[in-house]
C-alpha cells in the first residue's frame, strides 16, 4: 500500500526530446563547448571556469536577459575564462517545503504542474544554448529526471544533501560531462571524495527501468561550499589551509584529474552574497602563493542575478532572486573582469 495519488503518466525523456529537439548545428556548438570545459579539468587548458547565475531559474525572461549579458562579457574574457551559466531548475529544500524550482512550478505564483515544468525547463535550456552558444549547468537533484536535459547540459552539480546518495553517484558515473560533487552539509571531505571515487568507477545498476552499465566519469571533481556544525552555525572551507588539506587528501586517493571548484556563496559566505567578491579574491591570492593549489582550483561557483539580494515570491521584482540572495549584475560584471585580470 502507498499513501500517494498517481496523477498522470508523464512523457519519457525520449518523447520530450523528440517533441523539442535541438538542431545539428546547436549540437556541434555544444560539443565544442564541452571539449573546452573538459580541457580545463584534464589540465589541457589553463582557463578558469565560472559557474555563475541565479540561485534558482525562476522566470524565463529574466534568466535569458541575464544569460545574454553573460554572453557579452564572455566575449571580453574568452582568453582567460569560461563562463557556464547556472540555470538551476530543480531546488533542494532543507525541510521539503517551499518553491522547488521551475520543474515543479513554471510560474512560482501558481500551483505545481510537472508536465508544464518539464517542457519549460527544456525550452529554457534550449534557448540559452541556441541563442548564446554558452554551455550551461543545472543541479542533478533527481537522477531519474536528468535525461530530460542530458543533451543540453555542459556541467552538472550534485548538492550537499545528495552527495552520499548512491543513485546520484552511479548516475554521475555514466555521464560524459564534468560533475561537481559538493561537500556534505556537515563538511566531511571524505564523504565527497568517496563520491568522486564512486563516480569515476564503472558500475552496473538499475536506471529508469533498465539494467545499465556505466563506464566511469573521469571529469568528476570536488566543490567546496562550506558546512554547518551541530549547532547550526555556518563555517567556510575556502581558506588556504582548507584547500591545502583537500589537495593532500585528494592526492592520497590517486583520483583522476584532481580539481576543485570553490562555491563562493552558501555556507562559505553565510549567504551574505556580497562576501562572494572577497572570497573569490582570497582564493585567487592562495593560488598565487602555492602552485599546487593554483593547478587544483579550476574555478568558482557564484550566485548572481540582475538585482542584488532576494525577494519573496509574489513581489515581482524583475531579475531578483526568490531563493538565496544573489550578487547583482553590476557587481557581477566587475567581479568577472577582476577575476580575468588575476588568472
Write a structural description.
With 343 residues, this protein is an alpha/beta fold. It has 10 helices and 12 strands. The protein has helices at 13-19, 24-42, 60-77, 114-132, 166-172, 189-199, 240-253, 275-289, 291-296, 329-342; strands at residues 48-53, 81-85, 136-139, 153-158, 179-182, 203-207, 210-214, 220-224, 227-228, 234-235, 260-263, 297-303. The strands form 3 sheets. An 8-stranded parallel beta sheet has the order 2-1-12-11-8-5-4-3. The longest helix has 19 residues, at 24-42.
Please give the largest β-sheet.
Answer: 8 strands, parallel
Query: What is the CATH homology-level superfamily?
Result: Aldolase class I
Proportion of residues in helical segments: 25-40%
The pLDDT mean sits at 96
The whole-angstrom Rg is: 19 Å
Cα shape: globular
Summarize the structure.
This protein has 343 residues and is α/β, with parallel strands linked by helices. The chain is built from 10 helices and 12 strands.
Give me the secondary-structure topology.
Elements lengths: L12 H7 L4 H19 L5 E6 L6 H18 L3 E5 L28 H19 L3 E4 L13 E6 L7 H7 L6 E4 L6 H11 L3 E5 L2 E5 L5 E5 L2 E2 L5 E2 L4 H14 L6 E4 L11 H15 L1 H6 E7 L25 H14 L1
Parallel strand pairs: 1-2, 1-12, 3-4, 4-5, 5-8, 8-11, 11-12
Antiparallel strand pairs: 6-7, 9-10
Helix pairs in contact: 3-4, 3-10, 5-6, 6-7, 8-10
Amino acid at each position: 500500500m502507498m499513501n500517494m495519488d498517481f496523477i498522470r503518466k508523464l512523457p519519457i525523456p525520449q518523447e520530450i526530446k523528440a517533441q523539442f529537439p535541438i538542431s545539428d548545428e546547436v549540437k556541434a556548438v555544444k560539443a565544442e563547448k564541452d571539449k573546452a570545459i573538459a580541457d580545463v579539468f584534464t589540465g589541457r587548458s589553463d582557463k578558469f571556469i565560472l559557474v555563475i547565475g541565479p540561485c534558482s531559474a525562476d522566470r524565463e525572461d529574466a534568466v535569458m536577459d541575464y544569460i545574454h549579458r553573460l554572453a557579452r562579457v564572455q566575449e571580453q574574457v574568452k582568453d582567460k575564462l569560461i563562463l557556464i551559466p547556472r540555470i538551476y531548475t530543480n531546488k533542494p529544500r532543507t525541510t521539503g517545503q517551499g518553491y522547488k524550482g521551475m520543474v515543479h512550478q513554471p510560474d512560482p505564483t501558481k500551483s505545481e504542474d510537472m508536465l508544464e515544468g518539464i517542457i519549460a525547463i527544456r525550452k529554457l535550456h534550449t534557448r540559452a544554448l541556441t541563442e548564446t552558444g554558452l554551455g550551461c549547468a543545472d543541479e542533478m537533484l533527481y537522477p531519474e529526471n536528468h535525461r530530460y536535459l542530458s543533451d543540453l547540459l555542459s556541467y552538472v552539480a550534485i548538492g550537499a544533501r545528495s552527495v552520499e546518495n548512491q543513485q546520484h553517484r552511479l548516475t554521475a558515473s555514466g555521464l560524459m560531462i564534468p560533475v561537481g560533487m559538493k561537500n556534505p552539509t556537515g563538511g566531511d571531505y571524505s564523504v565527497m571524495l568517496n563520491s568522486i571515487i564512486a563516480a569515476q568507477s564503472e558500475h552496473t545498476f538499475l536506471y529508469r527501468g533498465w539494467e545499465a552499465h556505466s563506464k566511469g566519469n573521469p571529469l568528476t571533481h570536488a566543490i567546496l561550499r562550506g558546512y554547518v556544525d551541530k549547532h547550526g552555525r555556518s563555517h567556510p572551507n575556502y581558506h588556504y589551509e582548507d584547500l591545502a588539506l583537500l589537495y593532500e587528501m585528494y592526492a592520497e586517493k590517486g583520483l583522476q584529474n584532481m580539481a576543485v571548484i570553490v562555491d563562493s556563496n552558501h555556507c562559505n559566505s553565510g549567504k551574505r552574497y556580497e562576501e562572494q567578491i572577497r572570497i573569490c579574491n582570497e582564493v585567487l591570492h592562495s593560488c598565487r602563493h602555492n602552485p599546487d593549489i593554483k593547478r587544483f582550483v579550476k574555478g568558482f561557483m557564484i550566485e548572481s542575478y540582475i538585482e542584488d539580494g532576494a525577494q519573496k515570491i509574489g513581489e515581482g521584482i524583475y531579475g531578483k532572486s526568490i531563493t538565496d540572495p544573489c550578487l547583482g549584475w553590476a557587481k557581477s560584471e566587475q567581479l568577472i573582469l577582476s577575476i580575468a585580470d588575476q588568472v
